[in-house]
Each structure stands twice: as C-alpha cells, then as structure tokens.
Amino acid sequence: MKLKDRVAVITGSASGIGRASALEFAKEGSRVVVADINLSGARETVKQIEQSSGVAVAVEVDVSMPGSVKEMVENTIHAFGHIDVLFNNAAIQVNKTIEDTTFEEWTREIGINLGGVFLCSKLFLPHLRLSRGCIVNMSSVNGFFVEPACAGYCASKGGIIALTKAMAIDHGKDGIRVNCICPGYIDAGLAWGYFEAQVNPAEARKSAGKLHALGRIGRPEEVARLAVFLASNDGSFITGSAIVVSGGFGTGLPPLS
Questions:
Q1: No. of H helices and E strands in the chain?
Q2: Which has the minimum average pLDDT: 15-24, 73-82, 121-130, 243-252?
Q3: What whole-number percentage of the chain has pLDDT above 70?
Q4: Catalytic site residues?
Q5: Confidence band, pLDDT 50/70/90 cuts, at residue 257
Q6: What global pTM score does this model have?
Q7: CATH homologous superfamily, domain 7-183+219-236
Q8: What is the DSSP letter of 107?
Q9: Which residues make beta-bridge pairs with 36?
Q10: 22 neighbors 223 (Cβ within 8 angstroms)
Q11: Which residue spans of the chain are classified as CATH 3.40.50.720?
C-alpha cells in the first residue's frame, strides 16, 4: 500500500496508460480522481476500481481549457479535501509533418499535450504545496529523438521534459517533486490506435517489437508501476528527472523487409 490514504488526480485515465495507472494507484491505497474528456470511459475506470474495493470519482475535463481545469480542481477538493499527486497524462497525437499540419491541429495538440501540463500544474500547485505533494508528467521517448510524420507530437513531448525540469527547480523549495515518464511503444492508447489502423495489427505490433532490445512492445501496467514508484516515498529523492521506460527502444533490430 505505497499510496495509502493519498489522493491522486490522473488525467486521460479513461483508457490506456491512464486507466492502468488509475487501477494501480487505487491498488496501492490511493483515492483516485479519474479525469478525462471522455466521461463514460472515466466512469468505466471508476467502476473497475470500485470492483476491487478501491475509491474513485470520475470527472469530465478538457485539460486545454482553463475553466474546465478549474472545475476539476474544485471537484477534487470537494470530493477528497486535498490532493497529493497530480499525474498529467492526457495527450493526443497528430501524425503529420509540419507542412501538412493545420494551424487548428497544431494549436489543439500543443494545447492538450503541453498546455494541459501547464494548466493542471498551475491550478493544482497551491494545493500540492499544502500537502508537499508531487507531479508526474507523461512525456515520451519522442521527447529525445523524433520519428517521421509526428512533428507536433515530438515538439510537445520535448517541451514537457523541459517544463518538468523547470517546475522541479522552481518548486523544490516547497517540497514538491516533479518528474516525467518517457515510454517507448506501449500497447495502449495512442499506439494501440496506430496498430489497429494497420492492415494487419498483429504484424504491426510484432514489427514494432523488433525495434526494442527486449523484442516486444510494452504493456500499460509496466508504465503504471513506474508512476506509482515516482508518486510514492520510494521516489522521495527523485525530482527533475525524465525516466525512460521503453524496453530498449531504438536498440533492437530493424524490422525484417
């Protein structure tokens, strides 16, 4: 019970890594605010938590909109009285070059991926200061190196790494730790949608797995366990770090032709 009696807000937790993290946090004793723009999916996550005797509430939020984030903060404090952990996980991915990306797509992607980290952190910081809590941000290996046709996504994830370090420096004096997670290919969420869009999803997963030293793509719960570690006392001396959980992505064999 590494997170017993703590309150965690996890954005983008209606599915994928966010849902897996909400389940893991609850398993470790945390009360969880399941926040997502997809309210029905968030309620399903809450249902799964409650089936395992956990405690959670679903909150609808658009992390790119100040009014929506402010309402999420108010709902969190109303439900649980305080917050100990903010996990900024919500994201989208536009698979285009800069030339092909519309202004609206660029603004939305940066607004959700990077702007969401800014807004949620800004509005929760006064409460995290009171609890001497922590922030976990979701970045990506694409924050370090890029792949074709995802320019905006890579820009946003690189920005999250820099923002994480800046917040860690600014708020360490308040006892607030800030770290980010940089996954490789994970069979959930954005990657799952990419695989399922292929002619042969199973072959696409297999091909992607060959790019990893471990010969496979990751599972969402493997990322969730790292989030638990960073949010718990086990990670008490870790801040300003970008931790890669990628199965050695980029060090494996290239796909066979």
A1: 9, 7
A2: 243-252
A3: 98
A4: 153
A5: very low
A6: 0.94
A7: NAD(P)-binding Rossmann-like Domain (3.40.50.720)
A8: H
A9: 60
A10: no
A11: 7-183+219-236
